Amino acid sequence: MRAVNIVVSGRVQGVGFRAFVLRQAAAAAVTGWVRNLPDGSVECEAHGRGTVLEEFVEVLRSGPRHARVESAAVQWFESAEVPDGFRVTG
Prior knowledge:
The chain is of the alpha+beta class. It has two helices and five strands; from the N terminus they run βαββαββ. The chain has helices at 17-28, 50-62; strands at 2-11, 31-36, 42-48, 68-78, 86-88. Strand 2 and strand 3 form a beta hairpin. Helix 1 (17-28) packs antiparallel against helix 2 (50-62).
């Protein structure tokens, strides 16, 4: 299965970014996790199918209304492991 790791930087903590990611993951039917990082960025790993996963990444590049995404580091990879559901960690 295709997977992606995304680290989003900017004003992304304290603005509902993780809740936004959870809603978007449910709408796109992708699995994985999202967490805040100590440096103020947000990291997400998502597993899903081709174009759905690509669209999910594009939505995260925009973020919720009160966020200001300055950059998004995206790394694509193949994964044999498929997480159950989508959750907030850390």
